Amino acid sequence: MQPATHPRPTELRYRIADFINDRVKALPGFHAAARAAIASLLHSRTAQSRDQEATSGTVRTAARPHAAPQTSQRSALCVASGISDSATLSQQVSLDNLPLPPLEMRELVGTTDTAAFDNPTGGLVYHYLEPEFYERVFDFGCGCGRVARQLLLQRPSPKMYVGVDLHQGMIRWCQRNLRPAAPHFSFLHHDVFNSRFNPNPASPIAANFPVASSQFTLVNALSVFTHLTQEQAVHYLRECARILDPTGVLHASWFFFDKQEFPMLHDQSNALYVSYVDPSAAVIFDRHWVQTTARECGLRIYRIMPPYVRGHQWAVIFTKRTDLPEPEFPPDTAPYGHAAPPVGSGRDLAKIGLEGE
Question: 331 near 313, Cβ under 8 Å?
Fold first, then answer.
């Protein structure tokens, strides 16, 4: 998708805010004090607005509302996410003024360019996926809502969307800033251990998705399997297969290598890790192991797209269907370049978005 030639007022406002935020960070102590003061002011205004609504009995709605799912399903998702349904929907957010995630969060998910979070034309987020796959979307590793925000602006937008992520602050931001514009979009904290983003030693290394089986026409996993260990990858391939509709697709990105070129690896070793300190920083999988493991989980590869930078992320589309031929891996002929994993600029990355709590 091509970004708009001129930034919209909302986008321009956030770009200016990012510029000011970067400069203010250079002043010791001032940045934290200013953020605390702003947070207190916003909390006060929100509370005052809610009091006024309670007195007048008025209810604000989104400018371009979508049809909401059944009340029982929506409430169950809200309980699982740890946020009140009524509290979320009380905020005044519409598709015409969707906020952009703050710079500190965008730094954690890759590109900080606001155009990567936008969809000014309303086109399909992934042009190579047929429109019918976007009906019910599960976004594994939704982060601060990069794909969710694009899907909100897509025409047609999904009838149902569930996003999960292990970073609690980014999930909370999505709940408060994106979900009010579309009640059928839900964001849930997937409480699993990660040394940088969710360093709670009591959290498991993997967990089942809190959704029903065969429910989604599209399971999206952008830059997720590229950060999972081999053990986690097996678990989540099974989970993705479980929740996928029989005619749906899993769209996932991977780093690949050819194990035949590494004769020192044992049979059980099918992943390479780039960091001793944080194995999840970037994980590279043997492509034949991924293909075989996917079959064991009930999935087959039916489309492969090489990376734009040599050796970087491949886009792979899986299906449960057995009538589609599995393609051969094409050669990686992309130009060489540099695309290091995002590291963020904050001191306590797991607390971003949870300040003041």
Answer: no
41 has pLDDT over 60? no
CA atoms within 13 A on the CB side of 227: 25
Burial of 68 (0-12, 13-18, 19+ CB in 10 A): middle
DSSP state of 179: G
Tokens of 310: 């040599």
One-letter amino acid for residue 25 of the chain: K
What residue ranges do the domains of the chain occupy?
A: 9-351
Is 152 in contact with 183 (CB distance < 8 Å)? no
List phi, psi (to 5°) of 257.
Answer: -140, 170
Q: Which residue has the higher pLDDT, 62 or 334?
A: 334
- pLDDT of 12: 52
3-state SS, 214-247, equals CCEEEEEECCCHHHCCHHHHHHHHHHHHHHEEEE
User: Which tens digit of pLDDT belongs to each residue from 177-210?
Assistant: 999 999 999 999 999 999 999 999 999 999 999 9
Residue 97, CA distances (Å) to 12, 17, 100 in order: 12, 15, 9
Buried b (16+ CB within 10 A) or exposed e, 162-171: bbbbbbbbbb
Q: Which residue is associated with the tokens 């959290």?
A: 203
DSSP line for 79-145: HHHTS-HHHHHTS---TTSPPPPPHHHHHHHS---GGGG--TT---SSTTS-GGGGSEEEEET-TTT
Cis peptide before 120 (omega within 30 of 0): no
Write down the CATH number for the domain with range 9-351. 3.40.50.150
Q: Is 254 helix (H, G, I), strand (E, B) or coil?
A: strand
pTM of the prediction? 0.78
In the numeric block, which tokens belong to residue 234?
């097996």
CA pair distance 71, 184, nearest whole angstrom: 10
Q: In angstroms, rounded to a whole number, what is the distance separating the alpha carbons of residues 211 and 186?
A: 11
What per-residue confidence (pLDDT) applies to 15? 52
Q: What is the pLDDT of residue 94?
A: 87
Give the rounded percent of residues in the chain with a pLDDT score beyond 90: 69
